[in-house]
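Example 3.2
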Amino acid sequence: MPRNAEVIRQWTILRELEASRRLTIDDLAGRTGVSTRTIRRDLEALQSAGFPLYDEMHDGRKYWLLEQKAFRRLEATGFTFAELSALYFSRTLVECLAATPFQKDVASAFERLTSALSPGMRSFLDRLPLVMQSKAEPGTPAGAARRKEIGQLLDATLQHRRTLMRYHSFSSDREKDYLIEPYRVVFAQGALYLVAFVPEYRQMRTFSLDRIKSLSVTEDRFQPEEDAEEAFAHSLGVHEGPPERVEVAFEPRIARYIRERVWHPSQELHDRPDGGVVLVMHVSNDVALRSWILGFGALAQVISPPSLVQAIRQELQDARARYADVEPA
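Structure, written as tokens:
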């Protein structure tokens, strides 16, 4: 039997007992699809690890329970067993932050969390990442952490203080000085970004923290807009821009994959007679959208808007032209 199956089953037992208050061994066997003998071994293993499981008789039947106030050392934090386990388990999901300034802080927080667990419990929960892992975004920066800049920007954001920033623009390939009103720092697609209002342009702008050359927080305060929307709300990437209706048709062989995922909160799916699907979204018509569509190659076809149809057609023509004189190896 795969080791992961045992971990998943024992985790299921703990969650079922917490949700149902009390269950018999037969109940647990039925819900996990194993024999009662296996369940008994699992209960013994969990008890040995330190989980507060116990049995009691009720109407002539033996029931198993998980102490609802499971860990006395957690009373001060207010964490339930499920909450603590979820946080402990989430270590594998925050590994993608390894290249950010929060790496040491996250590690320190988890060290404090684990102090509430017995060695046996930690050993059990350490096995959970075997069944769920995360992968960092391609191109995640591997450079030195920007702890100082992060601290300055968070301070400026919380205190609504205008900030002087020297920034290297990717589009113009030159450095420029900005006076900004920082609204939030956002972790997206494996990197950190600053969303700030630029009074000079009277608009919100997005800046990559990796291209910030210097910062100076002033004593001048600003009044933030109360209706500032979520960062990159209309983009499939890390861009700002108004949304527009976008329709993309997908071939039958990729349709199931498209249906299984939420690409954007605004999406609608419409089945086609041939088994394909049309995805409708209200999103920004930006480089992130075009890159996403091009990633599907011949399996995707833009229906609207016309400007996006033309942009994708031009990209494909340019790409084809680059390979016109390349001889296959």
